[in-house]
Amino acid sequence: AALRAMLDVSLDAEPSDTLAAVATPADVKRVTALARTVLLGEAVKNAAVDLVLATQPDETAADARRHLRYGASPRALQAVVRAARVRALMEGRAHVDVVDLAAVALPVLRHRVLLRMESELDGEDLGRTLAALVDAWRGRL
């Protein structure tokens, strides 16, 4: 029933045409500029780099990295830091903490990392693999 209702609403019209805006373009620009002012200390920068490096594949590793085909890229590093800045801002802080990095790591990295085909066929789950990597990263902090 839900799929049918979605089809009826979206087939011939753009659903976003009927939704009320929650922010104006000026609001988005203002929040984006504000997020860029959130401070990022050297220790947090290093932790973010370590997090991305922790996703680099290593078939000989004894940990979750053996399941990865492609690790996070430099763009993933930027995405993690940007998301962490927004999270810090939402928490009312003017600086990023490693807690922010950890909080955004899974949703950001899930779109930036790929499992090896063999691991997928064996039933390995990307979310579980990333959670293990993030937990190991947190343990090294």
Strand order of the largest sheet: 1-2
Tally of individual helices: 7
Can you give the mean pLDDT?
92
| Structural class computed from helices and strand pairing | mainly alpha
Main β-sheet description = 2 strands, antiparallel
Proportion of strand residues: under 5%
Computed CA radius of gyration, to the nearest angstrom = 19 Å
Order of helices and strands: HHHEHHEHH
Unreliable stretches (pLDDT < 50, length at least 5) are none
Q: Outline, from the CA principal axes?
A: flat
Number of strands: 2
**Gap from first CA to last CA:** 48 Å
What fraction, in percent, of the residue positions are helical? 55-70%
Structure characterization notes:
This protein has 141 residues and is mainly α. The chain has helices at residues 2-10, 25-36, 42-53, 74-90, 98-109, 117-121, 126-140, and strands at residues 68-70, 114-115. Strands 1-2 form a two-stranded antiparallel sheet. Helix 3 (42-53) crosses helix 4 (74-90) and helix 5 (98-109) packs antiparallel against helix 7.
